[in-house]
Amino acid sequence: MGETMSSYHFYEAEKKDTNEIFEILKNFENEVKELNYPKVDNDKLKTKIFYFLQHGKILMVKNLDKDKLIGLSVMHNTEYLWSTENILNVQVIYVLPEYRSLEVFNNIMKIIKTQANDKAIHLSISTKLVASQLLERVGFEQMGNIWRMK
User: Which CATH architecture does the domain made up of 8-137 adopt?
Assistant: First the structure.
């Protein structure tokens, strides 16, 4: 027997969504414990959420069948360090593991591309996730790596 596809709603976050955003980002912290990132400072995370609500965009992904926030993307317009040309900097794309699918990712990317409005899009991966083929499929070009010294 085949599975039925879930219905998803993709929308821009508002201030009233702050608690849901906070909770899903805390889930992200739990998922990457093995990377030894610093513990999340709850007050700072809330401040950053408010910052991006005011100065950037937070895209929310809700599973309508379960009325549950299952993912988000945080982005903002900025400039290159050496130029006044604008770029869209994607801070994070996160989807709960059990909801990760090509369908959800492609829809998130379609919205990100629309938000970029023909500007370059920069996305850094700092979770050891190997997603080169997936990112190339949607049009990204690998430009380097992120290095960290402990």
Answer: 3-Layer(aba) Sandwich (3.40)
